[in-house]
Amino acid sequence: MIQDYYLSDLQLKSFEEWNKEKEESFDERKKIKWREKSKEDKYKMWLEEVFEKPLAQKKKRLQENLREKKDINDFYPHSKEKEDLEYLPKNSVLIKISFTLKKPYTSKDEGEFHIINGRIFENPIVRDKFTGLPMVRPSTWKGHLRFASRMVEWDKGNKEKIIRRLFGNESEENALKGRLYFFPTFFKEKPERDVITPLKRDTRTPVKGKSPISLEVMKRGAKGEFYLLYVPYPGGKDFKGEEVEEDLRFLVEALKLMFYTYGFSAKKTSGFGVIEKLKEDNVVVCPEDKKDIFSMLYTKVNNNVKDGA
Length: 309
Prior knowledge:
The protein is of the alpha+beta class and 309 residues long. The chain folds into two domains: 2-68, no CATH class; 79-297, no CATH class. It is 34% helix and 16% strand. It has eight helices and 13 strands. The chain has helices spanning 2-7, 15-25, 28-36, 39-69, 138-149, 156-167, 242-262, 291-294; strands spanning 93-100, 105-106, 114-116, 119-121, 135-136, 168-169, 176-177, 180-182, 185-186, 192-196, 213-218, 223-230, 283-286. The strands form five sheets. Strands 8-12-1-13 form a four-stranded antiparallel beta sheet, covered by helices on one side. A hairpin with a 6-residue loop joins strand 6 and strand 7. The longest helix has 31 residues, at 39-69. The chain starts with a helix and ends in a 15-residue tail after the last helix. The relative contact order is 0.16.
């Protein structure tokens, strides 16, 4: 249905018609070269010229129009408006972190393509389908934070229990929903093109036979907002009140590792997706009496912070 909508007013030419017009537009020398091209090569050119580029350009125009009308704050809970939180279970906590990238961020938008500088670009960053804005999906946040949580130095036996409480248990026999709820992050800046050279894991030298990879990235300095909701419900028959503080103190350690050490981007081994050191006004916690726990994100010297390039 979506494809039909985008195609509805495109002026599509048949391959035969397009090929004839192309040849007639050339002088004799170019006509000879054109006739030497294989039908397969011509067919690829026809697809790009009459279908792919117009389709991508129309999609881009529609997204830009929608972006002007849509306020992305509608996707977020509002920590300053009590009515957004007052009906949540007791001990629920909302964390908002306004961050600035220290290293680039990238992601792979499977099955999509975009026009950049008039050319088809096949490795675009993930974008929101409605606004067209570059984004970090909730599932991406969850995956990277879960990874970081496994790197937290904590009592091993208790650590696994906390991770299950926060992220849930995905086993079919005893499925348990986690206590963390993630939201998308949108970048208002435009992404840029970057090129990465594939390197060997052991020697960190270029891999022979592999060409540099073009990526669409959010550059260093791009700003975003991370929202995370903690809801200790259902507590279960063995629920204890002290679990809440234990969960939150463990959570802040995982957040530190994700933001400052491991990053939340594809190409993490290249240092992608880490952020600048946070300041106090970058972190908002509701209710405010829980903010002291999260002050570790901006007050203590963090030896895990990577040096920026």
